[in-house]
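Handout for the seminar on molecular recognition.
Each group receives one record of this type.
Step one: identify the two inputs.
Step two: read the structure output and locate the region that could contact iron/sulfur cluster.
Step three: write two sentences on what you found, then compare them with the reference statements printed after the record.
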Amino acid sequence: MKRVYAKEELCLNCRLCEVYCKTAHSQSKDIIKANKYEDPEPVSRVTVCGDKMLSAAVNCRHCDNPKCVEACITGAMQKDKKTGIVRVDEEKCIGCMTCLAVCPFGCIKTGKFAVKCDLCCTEDEPACVKNCPNRALVYADFGGKG
Amino acid sequence: MSINYIPRRFTVVRDKELCINCGCCVRQCSNECHYYADDGKTALVNSNACVACHRCVDMCPTGALRIEKYVCDYRENANWTPQYQQEICRQAATGGVLLSGMGTPKPYPVYWDKILLNASQVTNPSIDPLREPMEIRTILGRKPEKITVEKKGKSTVEMPPQVILETPIMFSAMSFGSISLNAQKSLAMAAKNLGTLFNTGEGGLHPDLKDYTDCAIVQVASGRFGVHKEYLQNSRFIEIKIGQGAKPGIGGHLPGEKVNVEVSNARMIPEGSDAISPAPHHDIYSIEDLRQLIWSLKQATHNEKPVSVKIAAVHNVAAIVSGCARAGADIIAIDGFRGGTGAAPTRIRDNVGIPIELALAAADQRLRDEGIRSSISLVAAGSFRCSADIVKAIALGADACYCASAPLIAMGCHMCQTCNTGKCNWGIATQRPELVKRLNPDIMHERVENLINAWNHEIKEIMGGMGINSVDSLRGNRLMLRGIGLTEKELEILGIKHAGE
Ligand code: SF4
Ligand code: SF4
Ligand code: SF4
Ligand code: SF4
Ligand code: SF4
């Protein structure tokens, strides 16, 4: 499957990926409303780690054998058989955050329930990739079962 | 503040309604103008160190930032302008020579803007470059004085080495050290794809660029940094740098802090040592000495590489060019005084040298008068801002043009003129790794190629309008030029008529 890969040698620590992820997962999809006024505040699924010398945008690996799916006590966390995308079913999630505890990459965020990258499901290119100013994120299929 | 205070140049204005406090500006400005309030969230700004490089403006996701000119009025004085007063203040505090980057910002006449181009009407047809072939291929190198042909029509003349370019535009010398490796790599990649050449400057050739040696001009300058046999052989042609338009008569000085491991390897000097290029080549004190160096370089490369001599446009430029041609140079590059630089003493940059337009016209005329114009190629340098400038230069007699500032602008440079500080926010004139990585060669080579391709189209369009279908027919074709608002003397030196004549 296609995943988002970070090229740390090109990452500027600008964190615009976070801004655009947050906007893409807001109600209004408006950058100002999403980042200033919306309540509840939208959550960025991607997190830039590091400092100006070395940084990288960390996002969900959509693992082949996802620990979060394995651990989920309600079956809310599922890996889509067709697309390979690991998603939370918000109807089923009870916010116990077991998934957060087991994800080896720290890719589950806390909102009202578990929040995580959905590869911007409906778009052909995820928001973080599209808006990275230095092409430090690539959306590509480098193998892996999916 | 104190007596050393110099009013800041700019004010950074943040539109609070638009700002989402994402902190991108805080993390991007290498001059540390933006910072967070104690809450760790609210972005604040101190404009004192702002150089108007526009990095924060361009990166801000909501367009919340704007740079304004800051005006702190002085009592009006056309002689003691605020700038002179501020420079005195700076020197009074430091006792140092004033340094600047980029070309002179002084309002000297730009002759390109006083020259108009011709177009065909009725009596000769113009050509549509989209329907008919239009040749801008340019060939540099010494041409034989005459052609002898054997009976069957085969030429018996041994042809000196020639360099074929797919455009009359080349990238001028910018050394690794003065610019980042990523910037040089972007130019090298663009040169390769465009069928033209980039120039290593005097900084040697970094091993990462070994795939681009067939589109490299390698420079031999007074410091002789990084010069060895393979360096000379791994090139399209060799250029002896005598002078630079932005600082004629002055050597170079790359401060030790910019000489990191990579720069030191490419230049073959110890890490952290100042790289000083003497003002003269200590083995060139005459045209005869120059002839020896040209000869040695040709010997070292088995006469396979043309040798170019680059000089700054100075008062006796025509005679000097003639001398260089007679010393065996195959290509002569003349760099006008508006040319850019990584660092130059401000007074030299703003006061020494002459405009490329006049230098080029004078040199071309002199070589023609002496009957040796066709034996060498002339390259003009020193601030070409658009394709029309290039067309005018070719019509004044240039075989090709060197561009540097324009491709740098394509890579993000905003002409903030502080290259000398090494804090270039666009990753161009810096060696700091956190800034260098901002320039991704994969993006930037495309932008430089787009620029030159656009200029190529425009050159073809302008030529077509003149009814000319080959750049060879434009070269030295001064009848295609007319001056506007120029004096008799200026027209005479440029060798063109006034508009209406
Ligand atoms: S937008 Fe790109 S360059 Fe900026 S922090 Fe994210 S991954 Fe890095
Ligand atoms: S949230 Fe963590 S465990 Fe689950 S798929 Fe993503 S990276 Fe794998
Ligand atoms: S793919 Fe979409 S949801 Fe995932 S990190 Fe990127 S922007 Fe956020
Ligand atoms: S980059 Fe723009 S939106 Fe972000 S903190 Fe700076 S001014 Fe505000
Ligand atoms: S120096 Fe450049 S990045 Fe810094 S505030 Fe000024 S314009 Fe913005």
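Reference statements: The pocket of iron/sulfur cluster (ligand 2) is lined by residues A 60-63, 66-68, 86, 103, 105, 107-108, 116 (CB under 6 Å). Chain A touches chain B through 22 residues (CB under 8 Å).
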